[in-house]
Specification:
Elements lengths: L43 H32 L2 H26 L11 H11 L2 H13 L5 E8 L4 E8 L4 H5 L2 E7 L6 H4 L3 H8 L5 H12 L1
Subunit structure: Homotetramer.
Enzyme class: oxidoreductase
Cofactor: Mn(2+)
Length: 222
């Protein structure tokens, strides 16, 4: 399982593409809770399929793609390397995003953060309620599939909300360091909430692991 309080994400999926020559295969991280632990907000069937099928598929496909990329590197086949970039982005992003997502959730979650994270939220968004409204709106507004994110802009030292399509990883595509991700692919909620994404988003706030989000925030400030 990925460390809960790590500032970056690419370092968590070691080795990076630059070290494919001696790479180790990625593996599906264990959940830090049972599949049914987030009920009634997210049911066990969704969690089991989401983790053991969808996330597992990203991991498997990432490993296959990296093997092909390694072969292309060895052959000096730049065309093949370029052709593999979309699969690396999609499956690598899926693995990064979900590895963060599982730790962002907890059966003991919900409520509000405390301490420096809460103060930063108030500073950058006006209040915790306004922050929730903005992140919810960004997540609802994702067209098709994607993610809503709370990220940290290290250059400016501020929190920032962003939405990413498909499995685009936040840090790799925007430079923001991910603190809290909300998966709005239909496989994350459809079996329970059908096509009513706002109901799912209302429910997920009850299981947000603010301790984990705070650890990520504090790590990024160092």
């Amino acid at each position: 399982m990925l460390s809960r309080g790590v500032c970056g994400t690419s370092r968590q999926l070691a080795p990076a593409l630059g070290y494919l020559g001696s790479r180790q295969k990625h593996s599906l991280p264990d959940l830090p809770y049972d599949y049914g632990a987030l009920e009634p907000h997210i049911n066990a069937q969704i969690m089991q399929l989401h983790h053991s099928k969808h996330h597992a598929a990203y991991v498997n496909n990432l490993n296959v793609t990296e093997e092909k990329y390694q072969e292309a590197l060895a052959k000096g086949d730049v065309t093949a390397q370029i052709a593999l970039q979309p699969a690396l982005k999609f499956n690598g992003g899926g693995h990064i995003n979900h590895s963060i997502f599982w730790t962002n959730l907890s059966p003991n979650g919900g409520g509000e953060p405390k301490g420096e994270l809460l103060e930063a939220i108030k500073r950058d968004f006006g209040s915790f309620d306004k922050f929730k409204e903005k992140l919810t709106a960004a997540s609802v507004g994702v067209q098709g599939s994607g993610w809503g994110w709370l990220g940290f802009n290290k250059e400016r030292g501020h929190l920032q909300i962003a939405a990413c399509p498909n499995q685009d990883p936040l840090q790799g595509t925007t430079g923001l360091i991910p603190l809290l991700g909300i998966d709005v692919w239909e496989h994350a909620y459809y079996l329970q909430y059908k096509n009513v994404r706002p109901d799912y988003l209302k429910a997920i706030w009850n299981v947000i692991n603010w301790e984990n989000v705070t650890e990520r925030y504090m790590a990024c400030k160092k």
